[in-house]
Structures are given as C-alpha cells and as structure tokens.
Specification:
Blueprint lengths: L7 H9 L5 H19 L2 E4 L2 H15 L11 E5 L26 H8 L3 E6 L33 H8 L5 E6 L5 H6 L3 E4 L19 E6 L2 H11 L20 H5 L2 E5 L9 H16 L3 E5 L7 H16 L17 H12 L2 H13 L5 H22 L5 E5 L15 H5 L6 H6 L3 E5 L13 E6 L4 H12 L2
Parallel strand pairs: 2-3, 2-4, 7-8, 7-9
Antiparallel strand pairs: 1-3, 4-6, 5-6, 5-10, 9-11, 10-11
Helix pairs in contact: 2-3, 7-16, 10-12, 10-13
Length: 476
C-alpha cells in the first residue's frame, strides 16, 4: 500500500482497521518531505519530533481500545500565517523571522483536540499578499506539475505540499482567491468557507473583512471532513457565527439543485485549455442530471478595482502593528523614527510595501470618501448581485483562473497582470459567500499536464450544497 496516495477518508478507515499505525504514516510523510521539498520548497518549517509524538499518542489510544476522532493521526500542513504555540510563525516575512507564537489559533486548537498530526508550516506570499508564492521573504515554491511554474498563491506552499504528496491535507487562508487559485494550479480541492463560518482568531490578519481559513485536500469529501471540524462560533472572534455543518446525503436532493452560469465569467480571452476544461465539467454535470441556467452578475466587472481599494486600506491598518519592536526584529538604531523606518523598510518586501502605501493613500484625508467609501458601496452592489442570482439558482459555476499555472518570474514585475489572476475568485470574497475549487479531472504530477479547476459558489452558509455537487462530480 502506497501510504502517500491515501485520502483522509481512506486513511481514517485504514487506521481504525489497523492496516498501518499513525506513526508509520507520519514517518512516511516526513520522509516524503525530506525527499522532495528541497526542490519544491513547500515548507518553511517541519515539526519532526513533535509530529511523531502526536502520532504516538494516537497509536496508544487505539491500542487501549479508545474511540478516536475521525481526523486523529491525519498528517496535515499549516500555512505559516496561523499560530501554533511554541513554534515560529513568520507569515513568510523577514519582519517576523524570529517570532515564536505564544498561543494557538482557534483552528489549530480545534484540530489538536481531534489529534491531528501537524507536519509543519508551509510557504506563502508574504503576509498572504500575492498569487504565485514568489513574494515570500524566504523562498519560491514550485509547482509539482512543472517545476518551472508557480503553484499559485498565496497558499502555494499548502497546495504544493498536498499535490506532491507531502501531506494528506492542509489549511490555507483566502482573501481574494488564495485557497482556490493554488488549488486549481495544483490539481487539488480548495474550499473558501462563508465569511464567519470559521474563526480567524490566531490568523495573522491581512484584510480582516475578507480573510477566511479553509481546507486544501485531495478530494471534496476530505475538504468536507476538515471543514466540519473547524467551523463554528468562537468567543475570541466576534465575526464568527454559531454554525454546525450538516451535509446532504441524498443524491436525488443534490440533483434537484439548479446551477447558474454567469455570462460575465465566460469572457473572451479565457485560455483555451481552461475554457475547454470548464466546458467539459459543465457537460459532465448535465449528464448527471443537473439543470443549468444562464445568469448575469452585472457588477463583476467592478470587483477587481473594488478589491484593490478595500484590501490595501485594511492592510495598511493591520500591518501598522509590525514595527519591528514587539515581534523580535529591533535593530536598535538611534531614534524611534529610525527604528520604524529601518525595521519596516528592511522587514517588508516590495508587494507588502506597495499595498501599505496604496492603502495609506486611499484612507488619507480628502481621499477616503472618494475611494474607500465608494469602494464599500460598490462592494454592497456586488453582494446584492449574488443575492439576486441565488433567487434563480442554487449554485453558481465559473472558472477559477483565466489560465493554468504561469512560469516563475513571468508576472513578478507586473503587479497589474498578477492581480488579474484573481478576477474570478475576488467577487466571492467581497460578497462573503462560500466557494469551492476542484479539478475538472484527476491529475497526476508525473503526467506532464497542467491542471485546470472550476469553481462552485453557493449562498451564505450553504457549503453543504457546493460540497454535495462537488462530491457527486468527482465520484462519477
């Protein structure tokens, strides 16, 4: 049995039936990381002994005949912007290179109760700002399908770790597509939950009204399993909602769902491979019995410009706390002003600096109403667009990205071109709705073919509908 090819679901079954131990599979994945990660660069840190210790505890519970949680022993990776007590959390930024977390993020705390084995922390674009994982302060992550191409971003390390079989699953964060775009580029599944469905406590904030933590896995079923164990109300996050996930088990009920195809998302200039892949997904769903309807999301064309006003504004505010004193980078120059200038000048990369400057400008006196306030009004129109669409359909299907993974270095000097990578994912964040990225077919890293994904979006807190459609798709 090739343990690296297991899904979370098949792992759980094998562990309970004692086909292997939690320690065996943890050792297998640590060995996979040792073999592959020097070339791919998915991980910023690997926990090693800590992982093996958790696995040992799971094996002891099984040996004692204790009932174990469904995620017990599952080797997961964590994006390095989520706090794990006693371990480095850098957000891939030099300004946090020595920061050691003093507490656990709520999602980490929940998964620890499930006896999940954390393998390590994965690479990302610095402070989750980017779509390629080239903006990391430490290294560039490569796509397992083509080492000359990016894995997407900002959760590129998590996506690459799952795709290269260096983890059974991972957690990422999504502000404008940072789970779904790398999932599409790496041929895996990525879920951005409804805003408020999962606690953000212990996630290093980028844009607080948009950030959301979600699972990145090999299958939709695995994503569902992880999601239902991390969702719910958290007293430490006032934006979180009392939400208990309930799946849809009836195939007949799933097939009653109507799927919308927004004409604004199927634009001229869409890459032929993506266009063909998404069309094949639509045809496959039609053969499964789903009904489709063309819909309009009129304000989609304003989503990108709205996003790049709202996000830099929130970035400027959130990153003000990183002055290099409280988080371990103090170089002790002569004055407080020099401390700030030196630490922030050397600690932040170019993309972070760009967004801080833009955000500070749109929030400045005389410009706040002209830019930020107006962007928030347009954001409301985008949300209302989706509200109207969901009166006609249950699920919306779109491409995830305009094209498959691009080459490393191809867009790094052209921020506007890079921002266009999120043109299909950003509207879901602005509206706060759940969105799922899944591959149009099963891909293998050794197959020589670049993956293509498609996106399913649903009403608020109706993850069960998009996950049910996704599961039916991948199982038929």
């Amino acid at each position: 049995m090739d343990l690296r090819r297991l899904t979370i679901t098949s792992f759980n079954e094998g562990l309970r039936n004692k086909k292997f131990s939690a320690r065996e599979i943890t050792e297998e994945f640590l060995e996979s990381i040792a073999e592959k990660d020097e070339e791919i660069g998915a991980y910023l840190s690997v926990f090693g002994d800590q992982s093996l210790d958790t696995a040992r505890q799971v094996d002891e519970k099984i040996a004692a005949g204790e009932e174990i949680p469904e995620l017990a022993g599952v080797p997961l990776a964590l994006k390095d912007n989520m706090l794990v007590e006693g371990t480095k959390t850098t957000a891939a930024s030099k300004i946090l290179k020595d920061y050691v977390a003093s507490y656990d993020a709520t999602v980490v705390k929940k998964l620890k109760k499930e006896n999940v084995v954390f393998l390590g922390k994965t690479n990302l674009d610095e402070f989750a700002m980017g779509g390629s994982t080239e903006n990391s302060g430490f290294s560039v992550t490569k796509n397992p399908y083509d080492k000359e191409r990016v894995p997407g971003g900002s959760s590129g390390g998590s996506a690459a770790a799952v795709a290269a079989r260096m983890a059974l699953g991972a957690l990422g964060s999504d502000t404008g597509g940072s789970i779904r775009q790398p999932a599409a580029f790496c041929g895996i599944v990525g879920l951005k939950p409804t805003y408020g469905a999962v606690s953000r406590f212990g996630l290093i904030a980028m844009a607080s009204s948009l950030d959301q933590i979600g699972p990145m896995t090999k299958t939709v079923e695995d994503a569902e399993m992880v999601f239902k164990n991390i969702c719910g109300k958290d007293s430490l996050d006032s934006t979180s909602v009392d939400y208990a996930y309930e799946g849809i088990n009836s195939v007949e009920d799933v097939k009653k769902l109507k799927i919308g195809l927004p004409k604004e998302y199927f634009i001229s200039g869409l890459n032929k491979k993506v266009e063909s892949g998404v069309s094949s997904a639509v045809e496959r769903l039609k053969k499964l019995g789903f009904r489709f309807k063309e819909i309009s999301l009129l304000y989609t064309k304003y989503a990108l410009s709205t996003y790049y006003i709202v996000v830099p504004a929130e970035v400027s505010s959130n990153l003000a706390r990183f002055e290099g004193i409280r988080y371990g980078r103090n170089s002790s120059p002569d004055s407080l002003r020099e401390t700030y200038l030196k630490n922030r000048g050397e600690g932040f990369g170019a993309e972070v600096g760009r967004r801080i400057l833009l955000g500070t400008f749109v929030l400045s006196a005389g410009y706040c109403d002209a830019y930020y306030a107006k962007a928030q009004k347009v954001r409301r129109l985008i949300k209302e667009d989706f509200d109207r669409a969901f009166e006609e359909v249950d699920v919306i299907l779109t491409p995830v990205t305009p094209a498959p993974a691009f080459k490393i270095g191809e867009k790094v000097n052209n921020p506007l071109q890079m921002y266009l990578e999120d043109i299909f994912t950003i509207p879901g964040n602005l509206a706060g709705i759940p969105s799922l990225s899944l591959p149009v077919k099963k891909y293998e890293p050794e197959g020589g073919e670049l993956p293509v994904g498609f996106q399913l979006m649903g009403r608020y807190f109706e993850e069960n509908k998009i996950l049910a459609v996704g599961k039916l798709y991948e199982n038929n």
